[in-house]
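Action item from last week, closing it out:
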Amino acid sequence: MLGTKNNYLKEIIATLNDNNVDYIICGGVALVLHGVERMTMDLDLSVGMDEGNLRRFLHAMRKLGLTPRAPVPAESILDGEKRSAMVSEKNAVVFSFFDTKNPFRQVDVFLTDRFSYEKLKDHMETLSVGSMKIQLVSKKKLLEMKKAINPPRDKDLFDIRLLEKIIEKGRE
């Protein structure tokens, strides 16, 4: 998944790394990196919400040419009160950045406390892909996150079954 030439996921992750962004990959890309065979297009991230890290993250998004999907300035995520309002008033779980020329290049950043970098960092694993280091959520925590989706979608139930098999195989 991350080995092909011109791979936008690899480009995004490399840019995050080059800009020293504290992040954890969650969602579909984490599932694929853990061995679940499924299709996914967007990159779900838990990002450290301290101002310095968010500024590095926003710099990386600008470098990649990714802009907010919602009609609000990207800098809105720098303000904790604005982030809280997005969650409570708009029921937002993520803040999305995308490429207007290629909407498959999308990064979703978790806004909710439940998926915060601070809560997930103790469940982070590092994976090497070539010379690149990638931070992703552990299989066990990813399974817990998937099981917490209510109501679960068909793809969530599929992911849960495959992730449980992968975890069980690792115990053998």
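Closing note: The CA atoms of residues 49 and 104 lie 25 Å apart.
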